[in-house]
Design brief:
alpha+beta; 4 helices; six-stranded mixed beta sheet; two-stranded antiparallel ribbon; globular
Length: 205
């Protein structure tokens, strides 16, 4: 009668576990060339942040529901051919070597306007990030959005049930930071003009 010895846990050699200290930073043009060449697929969920390739987290059900609640609440304030939302699609921030995939970006014009280029900060009114496990990463992105010139950044913090609003962008990021709980309202601003408000609780699942 034969016996089966228990398998020993595999250990990763120290040399293979090491992360090199000198990481390579690529340019936006190099990243775009790799995308055009098919180096990445939709399943890779890769984005470029400050010249480094990083992975995008997979969404949970409350995350997807929140994105749809915000989209539906805001779309009533503008003509559909004037602005539209892009969901987890590339946003090009040239001065900061970044091409993130925000949860929602409100951009000028129709989808056909971006058939041959990526939207840039001058095309945008609002970037929304919905945060559960990604809260620290989304907060770290706010200075890049602000320095890049995105007028408004909302971080919908599902952990604490509130919305962190960043506005007044400048070279070092956003000058204004508010934390709004249910009972407060979020101002929807297009080209510097407030066009409507939505209740914070209406942006939460």
């Amino acid at each position: 009668m034969s016996t089966i010895a228990p398998a020993q846990p595999m250990t990763v050699p120290e040399a293979l576990a090491r992360v090199p200290s000198s990481l390579y930073r690529m340019t936006l043009k190099q990243y775009e060339t790799m995308i055009a060449a098919g180096s990445f697929t939709k399943r890779d969920r890769i984005q470029l942040i400050n010249g480094y390739l990083v992975t995008r987290m997979t969404e949970l059900p409350p995350h997807g529901a929140t994105c749809e609640l915000i989209r539906l609440a805001i779309e009533k304030f503008f003509a559909i051919d004037a602005w539209h939302f892009r969901n987890e699609k590339s946003l090009r921030i040239p001065g900061y070597t970044s091409m993130p995939l925000p949860d929602l970006v409100l951009v000028r014009g129709t989808p056909r306007a971006y058939a041959h280029r990526y939207p840039e900060p001058s095309d945008d009114a609002l970037v929304v990030e919905v945060a559960i496990s990604s809260l620290a990463e989304d907060r770290a992105m706010a200075p890049i959005y602000g320095a890049g010139g995105i007028p408004l950044n909302w971080i919908v913090n599902l952990i604490d049930g509130q919305v962190e609003v960043h506005s007044n962008p400048g070279p070092t990021g956003y000058a204004t930071h508010e934390v709004l709980a249910p009972g407060h309202v979020l101002s929807v601003v297009l080209d510097g003009v407030e066009v409507g408000e939505i209740a914070v609780e209406d942006a939460l699942p």
